[in-house]
Amino acid sequence: MTDTMLSLHVRRQLPGLDVDVSLDVGCEVLVLAGRSGCGKTTTLNGLTGLIPLDDGRITLEGRTLYDHAARHSVPTERRGIGYLFQSYALFPHLDVAANVGYGLFASSAAQRAQRVDAMLERLGISYLRAMPTRTLSGGERQRVALARALVTEPRVLLLDEPLSALDVQSRAYVRSELGRILRSLTIPTIVVSHDIDDARFLGDRIAVMDAGHIVQCGSAEELAAQPATRFVAEFMGVDLVDLPAADGAVTQRIAFDPWRVRLSRERVNQRYAWRLRIVDIARIGGVVRLRLEGDVAIAAELPLEAWQSDPFSLDEMVYAAVHDNDVRSLSANSLA
Question: Residue 190 in contact with residue 5, Cβ under 8 Å?
Answer without folding.
Answer: no
